[in-house]
Amino acid sequence: MSIKYYAKVSGTGMYVPDKVLTNFDLEKIVNTSDEWIRTRTGMSERHIAAEDQAASDLAYEASLKAIKAARIRAKDIDMIIVATISGDHPFPSTACVLQQKLGLKGFPAFDVSAGCTGWIYASNIAKQYIENGIAKNILVIGVEILTKITNWKDRGTCILFGDGAGATIISRAKPKDISRFIDSELSADGTHYDLLIQNAGGSRMPATKETVEENLHTVYMEGNKIFKNAVRSMYSACDIVLRRNHLDVHSIDWLITHQANLRIIQALGKKLKINDKKVIVNIEKYANTSSATIPMALDEAIRNGKIHHGDLVLLASFGAGLTSGSLLFRV
Ligand code: ACO
Fold first, then answer.
1. How far does the centroid of ligand 1 lie from the alpha carbon of residue 112, in Å?
2. Threshold 0.85, pTM exceeds
3. Residue nearest to atom 38 of ligand 1 (CA)
4. pLDDT in tens, the chain (331 residues)
5. What's the CA gap between 103 and 29, in Å, rounded?
6. Is 294 exposed, middle or buried (0-12, 13-18, 19+ CB in 10 A)?
7. Which contacts qualify for 91-96: CB closer than 8 Å, 24 or more apart?
8. CB–CB of 253/311 below 8 Å?
9. Distance from Cα 218 to the centre of ligand 1, integer Å
10. Ligand 1: centre distance to CA 33 (Å)
C-alpha cells in the first residue's frame, strides 16, 4: 500500500524595502490625489525597492525569516520555487540566484510566471511534490519589484504597485498533524493575455531604443476590464474548492485574497457571503505587490496572532495571463 503524504505551511516570512511612498508623494509625480487613490483602491502607501535591490535580495530576507519560523536549517530545503514577473534577470531564474545566495545547490530551483496568482500556482506545484513523496521542505516565494517596470507617467497604473516578498516553507506534514493543504484550484484564460502585459523585452518585441523611448518595457494594464474579471474568476476558484470539499463558507476561518483593490476584495467577500471580520486586508500599507500579496498577508496575520494553528484558511488570487486560483488549507 502506498503511503499518503500531506503538505503543510510550516513557516512564513516577509520583507519589504525601507523606502515608503505615500499617496501624497504620488500627488507630486502624477495628476492624482490621496482621496482618489484611497477611495478607488484602499491604498495609502507602498514600499519601494532601492536602486541596488533586485527581487532575489527581497526574497532572500523573507526566506531567512520563513526558514527560522519553520525551525529548519537552510540545508533541509530540497526545492525552491519563486513566483515572480519582475525577477532579477529574464534568465536565469530568480530561484537559482536565490539558491546561490542561500549557499545551497543540488536540487531543483525554478520560477513560475503567473502574475499575481504566482504564489498560488507555485504552492499548488509544491503540494504535488510533497504529496508524491519527492520533496520534504520546499521554499515557495512570491516576490516583486514592479516599481522598476512601472510607467511613472501613467496614473492608471503607477499608483497601484509596491515592492515586497513573502516566503513560505511548504513541508511534509507528520501523520497526526492537523495542519495540511486540503485542495487547490488553478485556471487561466489566455484569450485576455493582452490586458495586462509587459510588451517589450521578450522575443515578440526585443529591446530597441524605440521600445525604451515608448515605455514598452513597463506594465500595460486595462484596469477596468481586469476589475470585472477579477471577482468572477476568484469567486469561481473559491466555489469549486468549497463544493469539492463539501464545505460551507461559514466553516472558513479566514479569507485572504490578492490585494489588488479593496473594492475587489469586498466584492468577493460579499459574493461569497463571508463575514467581513474574516477577510484579511493589508492593502493600505503595501498596495499591490503582485505575487507577494498573499504570502505577505499570511505571514503578517500569523505573526500578529490573528491566524492560529488549526484555522481553516481560503486563499484566492487573479492576475496577468489572465490567471486565477484558490488554495484551501489548515494552518
Ligand atoms: N488618479 C485620479 N484619477 C484617475 C487615476 C488616478 N490615479 N487613475 C485613473 N483616473 C481617472 C480616469 O482617467 C477616469 O477618468 P475619466 O472618467 O475622466 O475618464 C476615472 O479616473 C475612472 O477611471 P477607471 O479606470 O474607470 O477607474 P476605476 O474605478 O476602474 O479604477 C483601477 C482604476 C484602480 C486601476 C481599477 O480598475 C482596478 O483596480 N483594476 C484592477 C487592477 C488589477 O487588479 N490588476 C491585476 C493585478 S496586477 C498584476 O497582475 C501585475
1. 27
2. yes
3. 223
4. 678 899 999 999 999 999 999 999 999 999 999 999 999 999 999 999 999 999 999 999 999 999 999 999 999 999 999 999 999 999 999 999 999 999 999 999 999 999 999 999 999 999 999 999 999 999 999 999 999 999 999 999 999 999 999 999 999 999 999 999 999 999 999 999 999 999 999 999 999 999 999 999 999 999 999 998 999 999 999 999 999 999 999 999 999 999 999 999 999 999 999 999 999 999 999 999 999 999 999 999 999 999 999 999 999 999 999 999 999 999 9
5. 41
6. buried
7. 94/55, 94/56, 94/59, 94/143
8. yes
9. 17
10. 13
Q: Report residues whose beta carbon is within 6 angstroms of any ligand 1 atom.
A: 32, 36, 40-41, 115-116, 155-156, 159, 196, 221, 223-224, 226-227, 230, 260-261, 288, 290, 319-320
Measured at the CA of 66, the angle between CA 62 and CA 68, to 5 degrees, comes to: 120
For each of the domains in the chain, give its residue range(s) and CATH number, in order of start.
Answer: 7-172 (3.40.47.10), 180-330 (3.40.47.10)
